[in-house]
Amino acid sequence: MNPNQPPPSSPPTQELTPAELKRLSRRSFLWAGAGVAGSLSLLSLFNHKAKDDGTGIKQVFRSAHLTNEALAQSLLSGRLAPEFPASLAVEPRNNYHGATPEIDQAAWRLQHGELSLSLDDLKTLPEVSLTTELKCVEGWSAIVTWTGCRFADFAKKYPPLPGSKYVALRSEPAGFEDEWYYVGLDIESALHPQTLLAWSMNGQPLTAEHGAPLRLAIPIKYGIKNIKLITHLSYETERPRDYWADSGYDFYAGL
Ligand SMILES: Nc1nc2c(c(=O)[nH]1)N[C@H]1C(S)=C(S)[C@@H](COP(=O)(O)O)O[C@H]1N2
Ligand SMILES: [Mo]
């Protein structure tokens, strides 16, 4: 730690019993941390004085945010995202960070190590539909019905090697290099029962705007983790690169 930086807030876990911890959402926990640090005005003074670390996140907040990553992991176990009646589902905004890649759908394959899987290969796995909320960090959200297979069922058929701790998902459509996107997931989140490799949205095959032919629907995490048009899937022992984590967002991006 840079000695010129103000001290981070003291670890808030000291003050809380596990039962109390469970009752706190990640966000309210941040505020609890701020309370422990002293006062909000003190924190904003720190923030004002703290140097930007180059990711756009001030050091003081980064330390709080690292504590929260650990917390996100402990809160994850056993939590389910809310589900809704399918009648509430709507079409979400198209949130490609650039142009929508229009690819040859018939030629698409999911690369998994040596395997090159077609959508029909994936459709042999049990089909599941879930109506959940897609929440974008930009502030909008939409209730959407996703249909596909559970990532957990994919992992049963194509098991990770022992010691795998992460999943790397990449969207690298040929000819759309400017739109390439990549997401890293801790393996527990990938295997969460609500995490789907989805091929349909609101009862229709995915459109190009929403990631045809295959995307991730992971309602325990923000929209940034819901990678569209997946072309590569691998299990990893080290934390993989992640498009938004590379820009300073929380790698876990949990809700
Ligand atoms: N390949 C790819 N996947 C992506 C993105 C992207 O830019 N490229 N944006 C993400 C973001 S920020 C959000 S909020 C969701 C939005 O999904 P939608 O466009 O189907 O609404 O897609 C995610 N998946
Ligand atoms: Mo987003």
TrEMBL record:
Ranges where the Oxidoreductase molybdopterin-binding domain occurs: 97-244
TM spans (from-to): none
PROSITE patterns in the cross-refs: TAT
Protein name: DMSO/TMAO reductase YedYZ molybdopterin-dependent catalytic subunit
Species name: Armatimonas rosea
Species classification: Bacteria, Bacillati, Armatimonadota, Armatimonadia, Armatimonadales
